[in-house]
């Protein structure tokens, strides 16, 4: 990868981290921010695209999907959502 591409990717990850930690609700700041901090370095460009799309959802929808509240709309990226849910369960289970 070129230096320009590396810098663009670094800047993109910084923007994603900022958005994940400044959602608007404290619950989603903690859940999504923690997930992004722990996992975003392993994501390729395609996964970053998917994450950014998911982060465009409202905090209310994201939170309802994560806690499994019935009667909510369907998440379009259930695989990524499942990764967030698994991370959160792992974190809560470990007492972190």
TrEMBL record:
It comes from the Bacteria. GO terms for biological process: tricarboxylic acid cycle. Signal peptide: none annotated. Keywords: Chaperone. Coiled coil: none annotated. Pfam families: Sdh5. Belongs to the SdhE FAD assembly factor family. This is FAD assembly factor SdhE.
């Amino acid at each position: 990868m070129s230096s320009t591409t590396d810098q663009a990717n670094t800047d993109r990850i910084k923007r994603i981290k900022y958005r994940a930690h400044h959602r608007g609700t404290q619950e989603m700041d903690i859940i999504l921010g923690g997930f992004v901090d722990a996992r975003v370095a392993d994501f390729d460009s395609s996964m970053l695209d998917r994450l950014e799309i998911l982060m465009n959802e409202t905090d209310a929808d994201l939170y309802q999907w994560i806690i499994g509240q019935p009667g909510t709309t369907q998440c379009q990226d259930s695989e990524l959502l499942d990764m967030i849910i698994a991370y959160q369960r792992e974190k809560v289970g470990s007492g972190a």
